[in-house]
Amino acid sequence: MTPQLPESPCVRNCCLDDADVCIGCGRHVDEILRWGAADAGEREDILARAAARRAARPALVFRGAGQA
């Protein structure tokens, strides 16, 4: 039986920062491009690195119009 592949962490908020990391899912552009061909183990590794990047990133705070 073939192991089930982890699903993509894509949240459809694709925008790369200065380090070529997606601010939506936390994957590096190379990991995004590799995802389709990656096996289950490689996908798990990518997911772990992406989660670590997201955890290390400061939270974004959005303010309403007119608030400073």
Which descriptors would you attach to this protein?
68 residues; 34% helix
Average predicted confidence as pLDDT: 90
Largest sheet, in brief, is: none
Structural class: mainly alpha
Low-confidence stretches: none
Helices and strands, in order, run as HH
Label the overall shape. elongated
Radius of gyration equals 15 Å
Q: What is the β-strand count?
A: 0
Binned strand content: under 5%
- By DSSP (H or I, 4+ residues per run), the number of helices equals 2
- The N- to C-terminal Cα distance equals 57 Å
Q: How many domains would you count in the coordinates?
A: 1
Helix content: 25-40%
Characterization of the model:
The protein has 68 residues and is mainly α. The protein has one domain (9-56). Helices cover 34% and strands 0% of the residues. The relative contact order is 0.17. It comes from Arenimonas metalli CF5-1.
Task: Give a concise summary.
This protein has 68 residues and is mostly helical. The protein has two helices and no strands.
Itemize the secondary structure elements and their pairings.
Elements: H1 29-34, H2 40-56
